[in-house]
Amino acid sequence: MLPVFELLKPASLEEAIEMLSEHPDSMPISGGTNLVVDMRSGKLSPKTLIDISQLGELCCIHEREGILEIGAGVRIADFLEDPMIARDVPILAEMARSFANTLIRNRATVGGNLVNAAPCSDTAPALLVLDAEVDLQSMVGTRRMPLAEFLVGAFQTRRQANEILTGVRLPIPPKEVRTAFEKMGLRKISCMAKVDVAVSVHVGEDGGVTNARVAVGAASAAALRVVPAEDALVGSSLCAETIGRAANLAAEAAEPRAGSEYKRQVVRGMARRLLTSLAEGGRA
Fold first, then answer.
1. Ordered structural domains, the chain, with CATH
2. Tell me, what's the pLDDT at 194?
């Protein structure tokens, strides 16, 4: 049963930020797929909810000077239909296809998923390998930080109580960049991730890797980039030896909870499989 709360419906982002400042016990809500569940369970009990779901400025995807700007209110389902996503960052569509189920995808938002910061967040690993940044807005102004810094731990971020996460920004990768995402769950869909792995590589004309990103989710308190694995890839060819070394480093970076140590083996296998697929010219 939901606790009693007041629902405010701002007409603009500016008004929403003002409401958040005026009501210290308030929380923004859009899709509500995590927040409502937490309120029903008693985990969270805000006295006031500020409905930002109808704010048009948060629900758009734009390209500006080589930067893709994704509003915090963009639904996960939108990644499956937007032509810019399909053309420039297909890994986000790949991620969205395995995200929960149709009903949840049609309500869950990018901003809500990141702010919730569940260790099993599907959006975080895919966005991490795209070098994403987040914008946080308050009465004081807007601050921007890399997603890797924004995610602190399980259900913990650097968002302040008076801030709204308004959007995600990421540089559009060169067309030569190959990306891949894979999720392991108890079932193919409609489940929380047991392990997420995302990879991105840019292979030069000489066959050497010039840039690489590796991210792992649901195997540590927060989704993380595995810099040692990236360093192992850069400057080498995507041969079996290099891929094996990077996969081992990805597994070593994982910090699963006690009783879930098997996840290191899963990370190793998934990272090896994704990188091998990219070496063979597969994926997006």
1. 6-44 (no CATH), 59-171 (3.30.465.10), 178-279 (3.30.390.50)
2. 87
